[in-house]
Known about the structure:
Layout: E1 5-10, E2 13-18, H1 28-43, E3 48-53, H2 76-84, E4 90-94, E5 97-99, H3 101-108, E6 111-114, E7 119-121, H4 135-143, H5 145-154, E8 158-159, H6 160-166, E9 171-172, H7 178-191, H8 213-225, H9 230-243, H10 246-261, H11 264-279, E10 297-300, H12 304-315, E11 320-323, H13 327-346, H14 352-360, E12 362-365, E13 376-379, H15 385-398, E14 404-407, H16 414-419, E15 427-432, E16 441-445, H17 452-464, E17 468-472, H18 478-497, H19 501-511, H20 517-524, H21 526-534, H22 547-554, E18 568-569, E19 576-577, H23 580-592, H24 602-622, H25 629-640, H26 649-656, H27 658-672, H28 681-689, H29 693-699
Bound molecules: 3-hydroxybutanoyl-coenzyme A and 1,4-dihydronicotinamide adenine dinucleotide (NAI).
Amino acid sequence: MSEVVSYELRENIGxxxxxxxxxxxxxxxxxxxxxxxxxxxxxxxxxxxxxxCEGRTFIAGADITEFGKPPKDPGLxxxxxxxxxxxxxxxxxxxxxxxxxxxxxALACHYRCASPSAKVGLPEVKLGLxxxxxxxxxxxxxxxxxxxLDMITSGNPIRAVKxxxxxxxxxxxxxxxxxxxxSEYTKGxxxxxxxxKRIRDITIDPSSLEPDFxxxxxxxxxxxxxxxxxxxxxxxxLEAAVNLPIDEGLxxxxxxxxxxxxSPESAAMRHIFFAERQAAKIKxxxxxxxxxxxEKVAVIGGGTMGGGIAMCFANVGIPVVLLEINxxxxxxxMGIIRKNYTITVQKGKLAEDRMEExxxxxxxxxxxxxxxxxxxxxxxxxxxxxLKKEVFGKLDTVCKPGCILxxxxxxxDVDAIAEATSRPKDVVGMHFFSPANVMxxxxxxxxAATADDVLATVMQIGKKIGKVCxxxxxxxxxxxxxxxxxxxxxxxxxxxxxxxxxQVDGALEAFGMAxxxxxxxxLAGLDVGYxxxxxxxxxxxxxxxYRMGTLLVEMGRHGQKTGTGFYKYDPETRKxxxxxxxxxxxxxxxxxxxxxxxxxxNDEIIARCFYPLINEGAKILEEGIAQRASDIDVVYIxxxxxxxxxxxxxxxxxxxxxxxVYDKICEYRDCYGEEYWQPAPLLKQLAEEGKSFAQWDxxxxxx
Length: 703
Ligand code: 3HC
Ligand code: NAI
């Protein structure tokens, strides 16, 4: 048929096989190949057609790289019409993941069978899109509207057995031999004279829904959508599925898909899809670098981070030894681990026996003798360089050769830690984010001597434990925390200039941040930043700098834990409320410093808070601390809850235009001083050349 789609008659069954590695995406030649094969099958001796895929998965969706480019015939709807109108039953044989357009192909088939480990899903919403080839019209006809709404607005895949129970899959096969199993299943259908079952023939009874079903759905989704419009459009499609004949519903779906595919939100989310996959690749480490086997891990320090890190490994079946200073600390650490798992069980996301299995994989010890046989150690003791060096010195004496020695330090010099050992090539940073068992980001910190196979192994194990990995060089705060400095600083400066805390946080939350920086400070504890600042000698001697944060701590207002900080908190509900006392204090302090307070727009708040972050990102790029601008975006999306619909700070800067960002930074420099606003040379250069960070990535050969 074509290079990527083959067709052959096997006895009385026509078998279409798609072979477009790595994930059988529906590129133009795949669409054409399937169309030709279905047409050919109409003319031959086949009595039914099986549509299956080679390689690791059934079709995993439209080819995302084609979006934004001129469409090429045949379009997917044309292919699906040919399948649905086939005079012979077409059976989708699903293995791996049938996602997006791939699952929509399966839904146009007359029957669907799946291997036991297969999953099906419509993840388009994660790309700021909606299923554009009938998913929103066909799924509710099978599952009912509520289940379809949950499936399509979450984008989460569904396992074969559950999909079977929901009617999305007709048959779960006995084993993973999907073509063999599907052929047997299809022979059974032929023998039984099974009809051409078309989902389009099912109608939905509108009276099965509450009258305000769609309004309520819109309201609920708006709360969690954070600047994304796709959820709203998905509700519109489901409304069409209920109220319109299917062809009009399909037309409506197509129209809304076309709107979303050109939206900035979807462009940003597609950017992150590829950035996330790119970030794990290290430009000067060969793809086929042999990996070190990781079968047993030790975590040193079972506090806030160590406990969460231990859970990450136990969750994927890797045994963990948790080393602490005494039995009491072990008990405390294990207690927190159990508590965290129990919450997951209570939410219905983990079976109780699985919880016990996982906890059973974590053993506590106070003796270094118990970690002699581990393949990897992650140190998470207090943030103190001398202590960390001492720990690494001990690790050096007990750990077996080849054991990877990682530190979870937030700020300490990984090279100085490596020097405490006789094997700096085995030392690496693995910077998890809190809570470590939840947050997706893992900054992998490359020391001066870190071996390539250590980096490759850490990237691979990071993916295995469900993290998104990004490489950072050694510097104070690595990529993420280093960039954050100016963000927090300006949030507080804005108060003195005339904003209330609610105004600063409100503007950033409207932009899409889950929580503004001042509320975040209250949550983390204002005393934490206060103590960290006291230990620093490099900050400008300026009374305005962090003035409000410092004052509040000195008044005993440490944030949520004391019930007051930038805000006051309801003792029962923890709801944050503006505090007139703080607002009066800000005005008083501004007066003392002769600062003339003024009205400040949301746009200014966003620029003042984010542009320092972008500027630092440019410095990080030119220093080679980050490999790509898109890696920085990944760090901010997965580590700092930057809104994915904005694509990360660097992508956001590209969307604003680097010249505009640069000009504004120069304006702020002239107004607020060079010590805070010093444009990065790379930003200046790109602004002058009219280029973007994405172009910089492409031209640097790292994209
Ligand atoms: N289009 C183009 N490239 C794709 C792709 C797609 N739909 N899906 C994956 N790829 C590429 C990845 O970029 C990666 O490329 P690289 O090796 O050069 O980095 C490669 O395929 C392998 O992908 P992963 O590293 O993600 O492989 P995994 O095995 O970890 O995961 C997967 C496989 C679960 C299929 C995952 O790739 C995935 O979730 N893909 C996207 C699925 C998706 O979103 N589909 C919907 C697309 S939109 C659509 O279909 C619209 C329709 O309704 C009209
Ligand atoms: P924590 O104070 O909650 O836990 C530290 C644990 O280490 C304590 O349980 C302590 O008993 C144990 N410990 C101390 N000395 C030890 C030793 N010699 N041997 C074995 N155990 C020892 O601290 P937290 O927050 O877990 O931080 C740990 C590390 O992780 C620090 O380097 C920190 O910078 C880093 N980190 C912290 C994040 C956070 O949000 N808390 C985020 C990312 C990294």
